[in-house]
Each structure stands twice: as C-alpha cells, then as structure tokens.
Amino acid sequence: MGKLLAIDALNIVRRVYEANEEVDLSLKAETALRHSLSSFRKLLGTHQPTHVLAAFDFGGATWRHDLYPHYREQREAMPSALKDGLIDFQSRLAEWGVQAVSVPHVEADDVIATCVLRWLSEGRGEAIVASTDKDLHVLIAGGAVLWDHFRGEWHDRTWVETKFGVPPEQLADLLALAGDPTDGIPGVSKVGVKTAAKLLQSYGDIDRIMAGAGILKDAMGERLRKDAVQLALSRQLVALKTDVRLGVTWNKLSFDAGQFG
Length: 261
Hints:
This protein is α/β, with parallel strands linked by helices. Strands 3-2-1-4-5-6 form a six-stranded mixed sheet, sandwiched between helices. Strand 5 and strand 6 form a beta hairpin.
C-alpha cells in the first residue's frame, strides 16, 4: 500500500519566517526559506512517503472572496522578499522529486482536501497531512491523520475531541459557529469554541441547532436567530472544496523516499 504525504507548504514556511527575529527582511526571508527546506527534508525522511504533494496558495482572490469580499482582509500580505524566494524554493523541491501544486481561485487547503480524500476513497493507503491548520483537521473524519512538524506530534480523532470538544465530523460546524477573526469568518456573535462545542454536543449539527433556536427564549436563541444569515455564510466559508482540478496524476506525485533515509 502507498503513503501520501500532503504538505501544507506555506503553513510551514510562514511559521518558520515568523519565528525568525532577524530585522533585515531580505535576510529573514532567505534564512526562513533555507530552514524550511530543512523542514521539508526532515518530513520526507521521517515519513518515507510513496507520494508527495506540496500545496501552495496560488495567490489573489479565491472563491471565498467571491462569497464574502471581507474574507481575510485583516490578514497581512506575504512579505515580498519571502514571496519572491518561493520560485527558487519550489525549484529545489522539484530537484528532490517533490511536486509543488497551486491552483488559481482556490486555497492550498482545498488542493490538499481534494487530493487526500481522493487518495483515501481510492483505497491507495494512508494519508498524512503536514500542517497545524485547524481547518484541515476535518480530513481526519475521512481517514487522514495530521502531523504537527513543529511539535513532533500526531493529531488524530482523539486529539481533535480533546482540543475542540467535538469529533472531526463536527469540526467544520464548530468553526462556522465560533468564527475566526483572522480569516474574517463572522460566525455567531459571542459564541466561542467552548460554547459552539456545547451546542453541537446538545443538538448534533448546525441544522438541528437552528431548528431549535426558534423555540429558545434566552439570549443564545436570540443571537442564533439574529445571526442566521452570517452563520450560513460562515458555514460555506469554512467548508473545504473537494473537487479541485489538480492538474497532476498519482504518477506525477510519486516519490522515491530512499534518498531521504
């Protein structure tokens, strides 16, 4: 059986960059990309995959911006020195036999979700996602596991339930209810992760929560009714697209792990 390693590339690069306290931005970018290559090499050596996908954001507006123009408007743009260095970075990955994939109008998360779920549905073997992105933890419901490169730990069903209070199948609904200011996802006002988890534990999913909101006479029922439209929008925004045309075959993603023992 095979082993797919799907790397959330910019999740690693950006975290390495932000951890560097260098004040010279060009040097900071150069150092971050060099250290990120070391991180990729370690990932490949540790997991010994038969297939590798390195997913990058294409950049520019996505289908989520079409739905909601305020999506991610508060997020800082990638520093130009770091962005410029990605061309050489991807060339180095290609020398290793690692396929970098980015698709216009979608995010790297959508690329990863499409690839991983397709791999699992075809019964090709295990699927590992290298990322700390909470949105990608919904893929655990489909049979994937996540690897936190920075902590050196696995994230599975038990981890999600302990961290968020709900199983992976309910995680997208929890993220929609709680919202995410970083991404500009509105959610429901005054509903955080703990409250969202309690609602899902009681009702099961957003549809049942909203059906019950009509008879709730307390402040929670009022907020749910008032924010029903933005909750529906949030639910769309957090959903991962799983039908992206990737433009690559399994053969193109195949990898010789022997060089990274």
